[in-house]
Specification:
CATH topology of the largest domain: Rossmann fold
Shape: globular
Strand content: 15-25%
CATH class of the largest domain: Alpha Beta
CATH architecture of the largest domain: 3-Layer(aba) Sandwich
CATH superfamily of the largest domain: Glycogen Phosphorylase B
């Protein structure tokens, strides 16, 4: 059974890319898996980013001239009265028995006999060339996402599949490090500058308590990112105790997780738009797996991960972030208790659980494929 996986952002490090790359890795031994991309990418490099084996996956370049000069593909630029530039991907999807739309491009019409739409959040309303209602299966990465698929698109998610998290770092002593891991989005939606300001305010207000503590911001970024420049400018010099680490290899990231005592995540702070709130939070779980006491935004998918007061703390304002952090800094016993709770809670989001559910899903798909048969699927594609 052939599977075509379309990911328009595979060339950028991100949680959504890791989600489906883990799926591809789990499927490649049983099925013929091909990645469809709009920009050439080294699959070996992608595998190294996420610590996965993608050696039996193939790559196919499907160019979209409309977006040729842009780093990011923004489907909101496609409106009524325009030809759908994603028809190139739709045509390519007809070459596979199963087509997986990996990253929420809602304007890609599936032409494979069986199709899967992976939704991390329904960013846009159902407008021009909307095609999600044509997919066989809609997968949501959290209950938060499932709720908004229903509210925005009037569709019910077929399957809840929490992201795979498997990020064991080395066994090393914890240090006085507060870590935040998130992509440096050009929009600033991950709120790294706000975290810099919060850390600086903490150090100023409680210099004795925060003595020796550092804030480390790690994440992926494209070149020519004005927001990243602003974060670096805000962070200042090393003497401020703030470090910015960009596009670091996996082994270095795992060392930061292992060494860090506290983890911060603020995506969604002061936002009223639901798509700007963290839809799940894979890096939060990665940190918790490594015994970091998580202090995260009280919203979105983070509520499904962190149990307030048991495996971490949730905050609504920067003042609350600072208060929870100060408690953890001052009380080593509390910090160790929360860290143990974090490790325990993180087990339910492990990679093994994810792979079991993926294989169970594709067992069902394979049985349906055998019932339909590749010849009937091919006839359907030709008719379409």
């Amino acid at each position: 059974m052939s599977i075509g996986i379309y990911d328009h952002a595979l060339h950028v490090i991100g949680g959504g890319q890791k989600y489906v790359a883990t799926m591809a890795s789990a499927l490649q031994d049983r099925f013929d898996v091909t990645y469809l991309v709009n920009k050439d990418v080294d699959l070996g490099r992608v595998a190294a980013w996420y610590g996965l084996d993608l050696s039996r996956c193939k790559l196919r370049l499907v160019e979209i001239p409309f977006f040729a000069r842009r780093e990011w593909i923004d489907s909101s630029r496609v409106d009524y009265g325009m030809e759908n530039p994603f028809d190139a991907v739709a045509r390519a999807s007809a070459d596979y028995d199963v087509f997986v739309n990996a990253n929420m491009l809602e304007k890609v019409r599936p032409r494979a006999p069986i199709s899967v739409f992976v939704c991390h959040f329904p960013d846009l309303l159902a407008r021009a060339h909307f095609a999600v209602d044509q997919y066989t299966i809609v997968v949501a990465n959290s209950r938060y996402t499932s709720e908004w698929i229903r509210k925005r698109w009037g569709l019910l998610a077929t399957l809840l599949l929490y992201p795979p998290v498997d990020a064991p770092g080395p066994a090393v002593p914890k240090e006085r490090i507060i870590l935040s891991v998130a992509r440096f989005e050009p929009s600033g939606s991950k709120k790294q500058i706000e975290l810099v300001n919060a850390f600086r305010a903490l150090r100023k207000a409680f210099p004795d308590d925060l003595a020796g503590w550092r804030l480390v911001l790690a994440g992926g970024s494209l070149e020519r990112n004005p927001y990243l420049r602003a974060v670096r400018s805000s962070a200042g010099s090393d003497r401020d105790g703030i470090e910015v680490r960009v596009n670091i290899p996996l082994d270095e990231l795992l060392r930061w997780y292992a060494r860090s005592s506290i983890f911060w995540h603020a995506c969604g702070l002061c936002e009223t738009d639901p798509q700007l709130v963290e839809h799940f939070g894979m890096t939060t779980v990665e940190a918790m797996q490594n015994g970091c006491a998580a202090v995260v935004i009280d919203g979105g998918g983070q509520r499904e991960i962190v149990e307030h007061g048991a495996s971490g703390f949730r905050f609504r304002t920067l003042d609350e972030l600072c208060l929870h952090t100060l408690r953890l800094v001052r009380d080593g016993g509390l910090r160790e208790s929360i860290q143990r709770g974090a490790r325990e809670r993180a087990r339910r989001f492990g990679r093994g659980v994810f792979e079991e559910r993926v294989l169970a899903l594709f067992d069902l798909i394979e049985r349906e494929y055998r019932n339909v048969g590749p010849s009937e699927g091919a006839e359907a594609r030709e008719a379409d």
